[in-house]
TrEMBL record:
It comes from Micromonospora matsumotoense. HAMAP family: Kynureninase. This is Kynureninase. Its cofactor is pyridoxal 5'-phosphate. Homodimer.
């Protein structure tokens, strides 16, 4: 049996970590926080930044701030494009929620592929995506084809490519699967869909800010994603959407609001969509929520997604190494792809008592999360998570497993897991 990484070695890795200094740019405490893929930590600069905006922008300038604020969906979208998406200026806009953006772009894509009746998606896709597509298919008489996918390994890419027939209008996929963390080859899938004339709409919620993306080089047409996970924009931060520049003019989204209108303040008679990415906006942007993205993106820009990914892979490897050694003998099983190149930033473990174990972990100062039916999900965000945090979390998990400490934890359901 090989020796496991010791706590001292984990501390040495932290001492040598080029991103270690960035942890100080977040509000941190003793908590082993491994849920950065659900809600990222608070950047230290965000509170002051928002307080200044409330005081000066809202409190003093009032409506005179709008000429500045109105540019922010695009300005901040361009920052996300540059620092996290590998996209060009004018291709990304911040607006609405991921759910709403997915609806807008999926509907626009279906309109752009008349005569094709099939929408493809992963049967294990995040629920909001499945529900939205179910609704769209019902409204339009399309067939939603949900491809079976493995709970531990994600969608098989070869099966997906084989399912791409001439009748497929739209494929909706997560680059990183929310449950098991499986990572798809964005460029390869996009190219395969293009060969049959289908559009792919990527949900990048669990990839953005964790996995380096190169949307322009990969030929991606459409994408959406959350900003409150690895982009650290805060609870309910507005989402982003991406539309390849060359496609924008040919797409019409279904919610015709005044922020999507050309020459908005001329308040003209009929709807005429704006020429740029603004055509995918709807109504007044949530200025305070959007503003929180600026300090958060400053940190990511300083880190660079390549360095984030390098550390994220090592954090995942440490979880898997210690799980193999300490937890598998207690009935746990790895529920994520083992190969780092096939995995995003989080690692899931299967155990029949995963719900109660996740609750016992919280009591032990470790926050991960539980996902149905029986997965413990650990998402160590590289910008602020130390190797020693992962080591300590796994050590406490080992202790819980050895003592079967979850037997004392109540089983009653809670509204949010
Ligand atoms: C893959 C994925 N898509 C969409 C969402 C939901 O987006 P929202 O609730 O912000 O619309 C989430 C997380 O909540 C997610 O993990
Ligand atoms: N958006 C969330 C919320 O409003 C409440 C609780 C959790 C979330 C999440 O983001 C969950 C996350 N998308 C997931 O992958 O499960």
């Amino acid at each position: 049996m090989t020796a496991q990484t010791s706590r001292r070695v984990a501390q040495e890795w932290d001492a040598a970590d080029p991103l270690a200094g960035l942890r100080d740019r977040f509000v941190v405490d003793d908590l082993c926080y491994l849920d950065g893929n659900s809600l990222g930590r608070l950047p230290s600069a965000t509170g002051g930044h928002l307080a200044g905006l409330v005081r000066d922008g809202w409190g003093t300038e009032l409506v005179r701030s709008w000429p500045t604020w109105i540019e922010w969906p695009r300005r901040i979208g361009d920052r996300i494009a540059a620092h996290a998406l590998g996209a060009r200026e004018g291709e990304v806009i911040v607006s609405d929620s991921t759910s709403v953006n997915l609806y807008k772009l999926a509907a626009a894509a279906l309109d752009a592929r008349p005569g094709r009746g099939t929408i493809l998606a992963d049967a294990e896709e995040f629920p909001t995506d499945r529900y939205l597509l179910e609704g769209l298919a019902a409204q339009r008489g399309h067939t939603l084809r949900l491809l079976p996918s493995d709970l531990d390994e994600g969608l098989d890419q070869a099966t997906l490519v084989e399912s791409l027939t001439e009748d497929v209008a739209l494929v909706v996929l997560s680059a990183v699967s929310y449950r098991c963390g499986a990572l798809l080859d964005v460029a390869a899938v996009t190219a395969a869909a293009r060969r049959v004339g289908a559009l792919v709409l990527w949900d990048l919620s669990h990839a953005v800010g964790s996995v380096p993306l190169a949307l322009t080089d990969a030929g991606v047409d459409l994408a959406v994603g959350c900003t409150y996970k690895y982009l650290n924009g805060g609870p309910g931060a507005p989402a982003f959407l991406y539309v390849r520049r060359e496609l924008q003019e040919s797409l019409r989204q279904p919610i015709w609001g005044w922020f999507g209108q050309r020459d908005q303040f001329r308040m003209g008679a009929g709807y005429d969509p704006a020429p740029g990415p603004e055509r995918f906006l709807v109504g007044t942007p949530p200025v305070l929520g959007m503003a929180a993205l600026d300090p958060a993106l400053d940190v990511l820009a300083d880190a660079g997604t390549d360095r984030v990914r390098e550390k994220s892979v090592r954090l995942g490897e440490l979880i898997i190494e210690l799980a193999d050694a300490w937890l598998v003998p207690h009935g746990f099983r790895l529920a994520s792809p083992r190969e780092p190149g096939r995995r995003g930033g989080h690692v899931s473990l299967h155990h029949p008592e995963a719900l109660r174990i996740s609750r016992a972990l919280v009591d032990a100062g470790v926050v991960g999360d539980y996902r149905v039916p029986d997965r413990l999900r650990l998402g160590p965000a590289a910008l602020y998570t130390r190797y020693v945090d992962v080591w300590d979390a796994m050590d406490r998990l080992r202790d819980i497993a050895e003592r079967q400490a979850w037997t004392a934890v109540p089983t009653e359901p809670s509204r949010v897991t």
